[in-house]
Amino acid sequence: MLASASVSASRSAGPAAVQRIRRHGKIKTDELSLFGTFMLVVFAIFMALPFVVLFGHAFMTYSELFHFPPIIIPYQLTTENFSQLILALSGLSVPFARYLFNSLLVAVSVVAGVVVISTVAAYPLSKHKSMPGHGIMWFLIIASLMYSGPATTIPRYLVIQGLGLINTYWALILPVVVSSFGLFLMKQYIDSIPADILEAARVDGASEWQILKSIIYPATQPAWATLVLLTFNMVWNDAVTPQLYIHTDSLKTLPVAFATLGAAGVPGQTGVAMAGAQAAAAMVMALPPMIVFLATQSRVIKTMAHAGLTG
Fold first, then answer.
1. Rounded CA gap, 220 and 228, in Å?
2. Prior bond to 69 cis, omega within 30?
3. Cα 175 from Cα 196, distance rounded (Å)
């Protein structure tokens, strides 16, 4: 109504008035664009600050780590913290390469299992809603999202112990290879695939497994990327689960090794004296998730855009 009034007013006011109105509207648009850009820059700096602190501390001298007020960017770059970290890791009873292998094995196995199982289970929940018990199963999956991890620690431990999987790799993989969140994410994404495409494939003689392999899996790759990123980050940084289920040092993961630096580091240097090595270890732990994020960010953004368009 206001727009029509302004148009009619501009017509009656003549060409000069029309130019003024257009110029005024352009100025307002430019101001909004400038304000939006400014806010994006502020938020970008705010989000990047933890990474700046992380990398800055890894290259700070020992005195700068405890400087007050705290500093973010080191005045003098040094690699002494990494030398101290290497020296501390060489004093552990298990080689560093073994801890790294354990972390990679567990993380890759869990990521692969979560992606495959979530997609296979989400397909019938999304496209075969007439199957018996569909509503009950979906209700239980949604209800399981309300439980936090610590609430299921004791029941999960009893199950793992009953299966005889304590002190094995399976104790680190099986409890998290089935993800309620992963199933929910994949189901919501598969819902957006038109049923006509699947029906046409069935008419052409494709089986359900062929549809899953040739249509569902390729179409859900953006959701895959999101699930890979979140799952890898969760498993890679988990230092609690290995301490619950694993008793042999040669089966423990990298976060556990880094967590013991203060207690079993350089002889005669414990606790505060190992702050530099711990800062370097934090940077080393952050690198793989950052690499995974850089490799999957375009597909993750596509998933978010898809959710915004269909939500």
1. 12
2. yes
3. 37
- Tell me the pLDDT of the chain averaged across its residues: 82
Q: Look-up: residue for tokens 């494939």?
A: 201
Q: Tell me the whole-structure pTM to 2 decimals.
A: 0.79
Q: Given a cut of 60, is residue 200 above it in pLDDT? A: yes
Sign of CA dihedral 136, 137, 141, 147: positive
Dig out the tokens for 302 from the structure.
């596509």
Instruction: Find how far residue 243's CA is from the centre of its chain.
Output: 22
Cβ-based burial of 183 (10 A; exposed 0-12, middle 13-18, buried ≥19): buried
If asked whether residues 23 and 127 sit together in one domain, one would say: no
Q: How far apart are CA 4 and CA 10, in angstroms?
A: 10
| CA 68 from centre of chain | 33
pLDDT, tens digit (0-9, with 9 covering 90-100), for 220-265 = 888 888 899 999 999 999 988 999 999 998 999 999 888 877 555 4
270 membership: H or E segment, kind and range = none
The Cα 269–Cα 279 span in angstroms is 15
Q: Are 298 and 179 members of one domain?
A: yes
The count of domains in the chain is: 2
